[in-house]
């Protein structure tokens, strides 16, 4: 019985390692910067607050990298926020999940925003995972992601 258990454990570990290597090889590429972000003139800057909602136990293990026009700004953990001062203009926000330093093999979540001078904007990122089926030891799940602008009032409630 002990031999059977150790064989089973060895197979499970080998399968897990193989899956991780496969995911690493198929991982979605990180966004590429088209150009460095311009430095905001404090007298004319737009302020963008980005908030990552609490994801519960599942999302706590994932880190999400925040990019603006392909430039990595920082990593957001569950319930974290970040303030970015930018010159007025149009920008692409991208949030991409990462587990153990490897990008998730799914399309990153993105949002186009146009910022006007001396204005404040708030964006919220959330993820929700639901289990859709359990068959033996396999679990099928679905993850929905949202990235969008929210009102200043909603932002105050989030903080």
Could you characterize what this model shows?
This protein is α+β, with helices and mostly antiparallel strands. It has a single domain (2-158), classed as Sandwich (Immunoglobulin-like). 23% of the residues lie in helices and 47% in strands. The chain has three helices and nine strands. It has helices spanning 2-26, 56-60, 152-158, and strands at residues 46-52, 63-68, 71-76, 81-86, 89-99, 102-103, 109-115, 120-135, 138-150. Strands 2, 3, 5, 6 and 7 form a five-stranded antiparallel β-sheet that branches. The chain starts with a helix and ends with a helix. The model is unreliable at 20-27 (pLDDT under 50).
Keywords:
159 residues, alpha+beta, Immunoglobulin-like, four-stranded mixed sheet, 9 strands
Tell me the CATH topology.
Immunoglobulin-like
Report the uncertain regions: 20-27
**C-alpha-based Rg, rounded:** 20 Å
| Helix percentage range | 10-25%
Taken together, the total number of domains comes to: 1
CATH class: Mainly Beta
Question: What structural category do the secondary elements indicate?
Answer: alpha+beta
Distance between the termini: 54 Å
How many distinct helices?
3
The biggest beta sheet reads:
5 strands, antiparallel
Q: Hey, roughly how much beta strand do the residues contain? A: over 45%
Number of strands: 9
CATH-level-4 superfamily name: Carboxypeptidase-like, regulatory domain
Known CATH architecture = Sandwich
Shape: elongated
Helices and strands, in order, run as HEHEEEEEEEEH
The chain-level mean pLDDT equals: 76
